[in-house]
Protein backbone atom coordinates (compact mmCIF):
# COMPACT_ATOMS: atom_id res chain seq x y z
CA UNK A 1 0.00 0.00 0.00
CA UNK A 2 3.06 2.24 -0.03
CA UNK A 3 2.46 5.30 -2.15
CA UNK A 4 -1.27 4.71 -2.40
CA UNK A 5 -3.59 7.53 -1.49
CA UNK A 6 -5.74 6.71 1.54
CA UNK A 7 -9.35 7.54 0.94
CA UNK A 8 -11.71 8.67 3.69
CA UNK A 9 -15.38 7.87 3.38
CA UNK A 10 -18.01 9.69 5.41
CA UNK A 11 -21.45 8.16 5.69
CA UNK A 12 -24.16 10.19 7.34
CA UNK A 13 -27.93 10.31 7.62
CA UNK A 14 -29.01 9.90 11.26
CA UNK A 15 -26.38 11.12 13.70
CA UNK A 16 -25.69 8.37 16.19
CA UNK A 17 -23.40 10.69 18.16
CA UNK A 18 -26.29 12.66 19.57
CA UNK A 19 -25.88 10.48 22.66
CA UNK A 20 -22.12 9.95 22.35
CA UNK A 21 -19.26 12.31 23.14
CA UNK A 22 -16.72 10.49 20.95
CA UNK A 23 -16.33 9.54 17.32
CA UNK A 24 -15.81 6.05 15.95
CA UNK A 25 -14.81 4.47 12.66
CA UNK A 26 -13.92 1.25 10.89
CA UNK A 27 -10.59 0.80 9.10
CA UNK A 28 -10.15 -2.05 6.64
CA UNK A 29 -6.91 -3.82 7.58
CA UNK A 30 -7.36 -6.83 5.30
CA UNK A 31 -9.26 -6.98 2.04
CA UNK A 32 -9.74 -5.13 -1.25
CA UNK A 33 -9.85 -1.58 0.21
CA UNK A 34 -6.81 -1.83 2.49
CA UNK A 35 -6.41 1.20 4.75
CA UNK A 36 -9.76 2.77 3.88
CA UNK A 37 -11.49 4.53 6.77
CA UNK A 38 -15.26 4.67 7.32
CA UNK A 39 -16.50 7.24 9.85
CA UNK A 40 -19.61 5.90 11.57
CA UNK A 41 -22.16 8.69 11.70
CA UNK A 42 -25.33 6.63 11.18
CA UNK A 43 -27.71 4.94 13.58
CA UNK A 44 -27.09 1.90 11.36
CA UNK A 45 -24.33 1.04 8.91
CA UNK A 46 -24.55 -2.09 6.76
CA UNK A 47 -21.72 -4.13 5.23
CA UNK A 48 -22.14 -6.47 2.28
CA UNK A 49 -21.56 -7.28 -1.37
CA UNK A 50 -24.63 -5.42 -2.64
CA UNK A 51 -24.01 -1.88 -3.89
CA UNK A 52 -26.77 -0.51 -1.64
CA UNK A 53 -24.75 -1.16 1.53
CA UNK A 54 -22.90 1.66 3.27
CA UNK A 55 -19.69 -0.40 3.05
CA UNK A 56 -19.41 -2.52 -0.09
CA UNK A 57 -17.06 -5.50 0.04
CA UNK A 58 -16.91 -7.10 -3.38
CA UNK A 59 -15.83 -10.62 -2.42
CA UNK A 60 -17.54 -13.93 -3.19
CA UNK A 61 -17.54 -15.03 0.45
CA UNK A 62 -19.40 -11.89 1.53
CA UNK A 63 -23.22 -12.00 1.50
CA UNK A 64 -25.30 -9.31 -0.19
CA UNK A 65 -26.28 -7.91 3.25
CA UNK A 66 -23.74 -9.46 5.56
CA UNK A 67 -23.50 -7.48 8.79
CA UNK A 68 -24.33 -4.16 10.35
CA UNK A 69 -22.95 -1.74 12.93
CA UNK A 70 -25.61 -0.01 14.99
CA UNK A 71 -25.80 2.44 17.86
CA UNK A 72 -27.93 1.47 20.82
CA UNK A 73 -27.99 2.92 24.34
CA UNK A 74 -24.84 4.94 23.77
CA UNK A 75 -22.92 1.87 22.59
CA UNK A 76 -21.86 0.58 19.20
CA UNK A 77 -22.80 -3.01 18.38
CA UNK A 78 -22.02 -5.44 15.56
CA UNK A 79 -24.68 -7.83 14.31
CA UNK A 80 -24.71 -10.55 11.67
CA UNK A 81 -27.55 -10.31 9.14
CA UNK A 82 -27.99 -14.02 8.46
CA UNK A 83 -24.91 -14.20 6.26
CA UNK A 84 -23.79 -17.47 4.69
CA UNK A 85 -20.29 -17.44 6.20
CA UNK A 86 -20.95 -15.58 9.44
CA UNK A 87 -19.51 -12.44 11.02
CA UNK A 88 -16.67 -12.71 13.53
CA UNK A 89 -15.67 -10.39 16.36
CA UNK A 90 -12.09 -11.03 17.53
CA UNK A 91 -12.29 -14.52 15.94
CA UNK A 92 -15.54 -15.37 17.77
CA UNK A 93 -18.66 -15.84 15.66
CA UNK A 94 -21.28 -13.14 16.26
CA UNK A 95 -24.51 -14.94 17.21
CA UNK A 96 -26.29 -11.87 18.55
CA UNK A 97 -25.68 -8.12 18.59
CA UNK A 98 -22.36 -7.70 20.42
CA UNK A 99 -20.78 -4.52 21.85
CA UNK A 100 -17.66 -3.10 20.18
CA UNK A 101 -14.61 -1.74 21.96
CA UNK A 102 -11.81 0.29 20.42
CA UNK A 103 -9.29 -2.02 18.79
CA UNK A 104 -11.78 -4.84 18.14
CA UNK A 105 -11.47 -6.73 14.85
CA UNK A 106 -14.58 -7.48 12.79
CA UNK A 107 -14.22 -10.15 10.10
CA UNK A 108 -16.69 -10.09 7.21
CA UNK A 109 -15.93 -12.81 4.67
CA UNK A 110 -12.38 -12.29 3.44
CA UNK A 111 -12.11 -8.76 4.84
CA UNK A 112 -11.19 -7.55 8.31
CA UNK A 113 -12.10 -4.18 9.84
CA UNK A 114 -10.60 -2.59 12.93
CA UNK A 115 -13.05 -0.63 15.09
CA UNK A 116 -11.67 2.61 16.56
CA UNK A 117 -13.52 4.60 19.20
CA UNK A 118 -12.56 7.55 21.41
CA UNK A 119 -11.49 11.17 21.42
CA UNK A 120 -8.22 10.39 19.63
CA UNK A 121 -9.40 8.22 16.73
CA UNK A 122 -7.28 10.24 14.29
CA UNK A 123 -4.15 9.25 16.22
CA UNK A 124 -5.37 5.65 16.44
CA UNK A 125 -6.07 5.68 12.71
CA UNK A 126 -2.56 6.84 11.80
CA UNK A 127 -1.07 4.23 14.15
CA UNK A 128 -3.20 1.58 12.43
CA UNK A 129 -2.05 2.73 8.99
CA UNK A 130 1.59 2.64 10.12
CA UNK A 131 1.10 -0.90 11.44
CA UNK A 132 -0.28 -1.91 8.03
CA UNK A 133 3.03 -0.91 6.44
CA UNK A 134 4.97 -3.43 8.55
CA UNK A 135 2.40 -6.06 9.57
CA UNK A 136 0.11 -8.50 7.77
CA UNK A 137 -3.54 -7.70 8.49
CA UNK A 138 -4.73 -11.32 8.48
CA UNK A 139 -2.10 -13.04 10.61
CA UNK A 140 -0.87 -10.12 12.72
CA UNK A 141 2.81 -10.94 12.11
CA UNK A 142 5.38 -8.98 10.08
CA UNK A 143 4.74 -8.55 6.36
CA UNK A 144 7.03 -9.12 3.36
CA UNK A 145 8.17 -5.50 3.24
CA UNK A 146 9.35 -5.54 6.86
CA UNK A 147 10.98 -8.96 6.37
CA UNK A 148 13.05 -7.83 3.39
CA UNK A 149 14.24 -4.68 5.19
CA UNK A 150 15.09 -6.67 8.32
CA UNK A 151 16.95 -9.36 6.35
CA UNK A 152 19.05 -6.81 4.48
CA UNK A 153 19.99 -5.07 7.74
CA UNK A 154 20.91 -8.34 9.49
CA UNK A 155 22.94 -9.55 6.50
CA UNK A 156 25.02 -6.38 6.78
CA UNK A 157 25.54 -6.90 10.51
CA UNK A 158 26.41 -10.56 10.01
CA UNK A 159 29.06 -9.72 7.41
CA UNK A 160 30.48 -6.82 9.40
CA UNK A 161 30.81 -8.70 12.70
CA UNK A 162 31.40 -12.20 11.28
CA UNK A 163 28.31 -13.60 13.00
CA UNK A 164 26.10 -16.45 11.90
CA UNK A 165 22.76 -15.67 10.26
CA UNK A 166 20.19 -18.31 9.35
CA UNK A 167 17.00 -18.09 7.29
CA UNK A 168 14.02 -20.44 7.34
CA UNK A 169 11.35 -20.37 4.64
CA UNK A 170 8.34 -22.66 4.95
CA UNK A 171 4.87 -23.08 3.60
CA UNK A 172 1.73 -25.10 4.27
CA UNK A 173 1.55 -28.44 2.50
CA UNK A 174 -1.39 -28.82 0.09
CA UNK A 175 -2.82 -25.44 1.08
CA UNK A 176 -4.82 -25.17 -2.15
CA UNK A 177 -6.55 -28.40 -1.20
CA UNK A 178 -7.51 -26.92 2.18
CA UNK A 179 -9.12 -23.96 0.38
CA UNK A 180 -10.83 -26.19 -2.18
CA UNK A 181 -12.24 -28.68 0.36
CA UNK A 182 -13.00 -26.45 3.34
CA UNK A 183 -13.33 -22.98 1.77
CA UNK A 184 -11.22 -19.83 1.81
CA UNK A 185 -12.45 -18.78 5.25
CA UNK A 186 -11.08 -22.04 6.63
CA UNK A 187 -7.84 -21.29 4.79
CA UNK A 188 -7.69 -17.87 6.45
CA UNK A 189 -8.29 -19.53 9.82
CA UNK A 190 -5.40 -21.97 9.24
CA UNK A 191 -3.03 -19.15 8.25
CA UNK A 192 -3.95 -17.09 11.31
CA UNK A 193 -3.81 -19.98 13.80
CA UNK A 194 -0.53 -21.28 12.42
CA UNK A 195 1.07 -17.83 12.58
CA UNK A 196 -0.07 -17.17 16.14
CA UNK A 197 1.09 -20.62 17.32
CA UNK A 198 4.58 -20.18 15.87
CA UNK A 199 4.82 -16.54 16.98
CA UNK A 200 4.90 -17.68 20.61
CA UNK A 201 8.16 -19.54 19.94
CA UNK A 202 9.94 -16.71 18.14
CA UNK A 203 12.24 -14.52 20.21
CA UNK A 204 11.99 -10.73 20.12
CA UNK A 205 15.32 -10.30 18.32
CA UNK A 206 14.22 -12.68 15.55
CA UNK A 207 11.92 -11.85 12.64
CA UNK A 208 8.83 -13.90 11.78
CA UNK A 209 6.93 -12.76 8.69
CA UNK A 210 4.34 -13.80 6.17
CA UNK A 211 6.34 -13.87 2.94
CA UNK A 212 3.36 -14.35 0.64
CA UNK A 213 0.22 -16.48 0.37
CA UNK A 214 0.83 -19.55 2.53
CA UNK A 215 4.59 -18.96 2.70
CA UNK A 216 6.37 -17.73 5.84
CA UNK A 217 9.93 -16.80 6.83
CA UNK A 218 11.94 -16.64 10.05
CA UNK A 219 15.31 -14.87 10.33
CA UNK A 220 17.55 -16.08 13.17
CA UNK A 221 20.50 -13.78 13.95
CA UNK A 222 23.51 -15.43 15.65
CA UNK A 223 21.89 -18.89 15.64
CA UNK A 224 24.11 -21.37 13.84
CA UNK A 225 22.72 -23.86 11.31
CA UNK A 226 22.52 -26.74 13.80
CA UNK A 227 20.49 -24.71 16.28
CA UNK A 228 18.32 -23.35 13.48
CA UNK A 229 17.57 -26.84 12.19
CA UNK A 230 16.52 -27.97 15.68
CA UNK A 231 14.22 -24.97 15.88
CA UNK A 232 12.80 -25.79 12.45
CA UNK A 233 12.07 -29.35 13.57
CA UNK A 234 10.38 -28.01 16.69
CA UNK A 235 8.09 -25.84 14.56
CA UNK A 236 7.37 -28.68 12.14
CA UNK A 237 6.35 -31.00 15.01
CA UNK A 238 4.27 -28.27 16.62
CA UNK A 239 2.15 -27.78 13.50
CA UNK A 240 1.92 -31.49 12.74
CA UNK A 241 0.57 -32.14 16.24
CA UNK A 242 -1.72 -29.10 16.47
CA UNK A 243 -5.47 -29.54 16.08
CA UNK A 244 -6.94 -27.14 13.52
CA UNK A 245 -10.74 -27.21 13.80
CA UNK A 246 -12.95 -24.98 11.68
CA UNK A 247 -16.73 -25.21 11.52
CA UNK A 248 -16.55 -28.41 13.64
CA UNK A 249 -14.27 -30.08 11.08
CA UNK A 250 -10.66 -30.99 11.80
CA UNK A 251 -8.19 -29.91 9.12
CA UNK A 252 -4.87 -31.79 8.98
CA UNK A 253 -2.01 -29.30 8.54
CA UNK A 254 1.71 -29.88 8.00
CA UNK A 255 4.52 -27.63 6.79
CA UNK A 256 7.70 -28.08 4.76
CA UNK A 257 10.77 -26.03 5.74
CA UNK A 258 13.90 -24.94 3.91
CA UNK A 259 16.85 -23.73 6.01
CA UNK A 260 19.89 -21.78 4.76
CA UNK A 261 22.91 -20.13 6.38
CA UNK A 262 24.36 -16.90 5.03
CA UNK A 263 27.54 -17.49 3.04
CA UNK A 264 30.20 -15.02 1.91
CA UNK A 265 28.93 -14.95 -1.68
CA UNK A 266 25.40 -13.94 -0.63
CA UNK A 267 25.49 -10.21 -1.25
CA UNK A 268 21.76 -9.52 -1.56
CA UNK A 269 18.66 -10.76 0.31
CA UNK A 270 17.42 -12.30 -2.96
CA UNK A 271 20.49 -14.59 -3.06
CA UNK A 272 19.89 -15.74 0.52
CA UNK A 273 16.17 -16.30 -0.08
CA UNK A 274 16.89 -18.27 -3.26
CA UNK A 275 18.98 -20.83 -1.34
CA UNK A 276 16.38 -21.25 1.43
CA UNK A 277 13.64 -21.49 -1.18
CA UNK A 278 15.57 -24.17 -3.07
CA UNK A 279 15.78 -26.21 0.14
CA UNK A 280 12.05 -25.73 0.67
CA UNK A 281 11.49 -27.08 -2.85
CA UNK A 282 13.62 -30.14 -1.98
CA UNK A 283 11.52 -30.70 1.14
CA UNK A 284 8.39 -30.63 -1.02
CA UNK A 285 9.81 -32.98 -3.66
CA UNK A 286 11.05 -35.48 -1.06
CA UNK A 287 7.63 -35.99 0.51
CA UNK A 288 6.66 -32.81 2.42
CA UNK A 289 6.30 -32.37 6.20
CA UNK A 290 10.07 -32.24 6.64
CA UNK A 291 13.07 -29.93 7.08
CA UNK A 292 15.82 -29.62 4.44
CA UNK A 293 18.96 -27.50 4.72
From TrEMBL:
CDD domains noted in UniProt: FHA (cd00060), GGDEF (cd01949)
FHA domain span: 45-94
Name of this protein: diguanylate cyclase
Species of provenance: Pseudomyxococcus hansupus
Gene Ontology MF annotations: diguanylate cyclase activity
Residue span, GGDEF domain: 163-293
GO BP term, example: negative regulation of bacterial-type flagellum-dependent cell motility
GO cellular component: plasma membrane
Its EC number(s): 2.7.7.65
Tree of life domain: Bacteria
Pfam families: FHA (PF00498), GGDEF (PF00990)
Reactions that this protein is recorded to catalyse: 2 GTP = 3',3'-c-di-GMP + 2 diphosphate
InterPro entries attached to this UniProt entry: Diguanylate_Cyclase (IPR050469), FHA_dom (IPR000253), GGDEF_dom (IPR000160), Nucleotide_cyclase (IPR029787), Rev_trsase/Diguanyl_cyclase (IPR043128), SMAD_FHA_dom_sf (IPR008984)
